[in-house]
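User: Please run a holo structure prediction.
Assistant: Happy to. Please share the sequence and the ligand.
User: Here you go; the ligand is zinc ion.
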Amino acid sequence: MSTLIYCWQCGHLNPGNAVHCASCGALLVRPPGLADGAGPRPQARPVGTTRRTLGKIVKVASTIVWLVVGLVSMILDLWMLSYEWGLQGVIGGLILGPVTFIAVPLYVFFNRGAWVLLAFSYGGALLGALLMGLASALAPEE
Ligand SMILES: [Zn+2]
């Protein structure tokens, strides 16, 4: 049973003594030192396909997390700015852009003692970053 060999081209499982793939006719390549077909199974199929797929799923998840957290944070930030400074605050927040994301949760936390926005914005960004890191660890960019 240990003498089976995978076709590097189509993945067909061939008898260990086969020279050409029974399915696609490709020349079967054995790793050096495994000419007899004994020992560990030759890695003829693309390695880590499941892992790459998982990496892609995690990457999509991280994008969704960032989009949702970013959108909700923006709405909450602008709502907070309008509550504090009215229309001027909203316009200022839009002009400052990314600074708003960072500054408003901190402002709300230190001036109002409300940690929810801070935890949500920063925690969400951190979660997105962690997922993105996990995604590139699972499926490195080619
Ligand atoms: Zn084949």
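Residues 1-45 form one domain.
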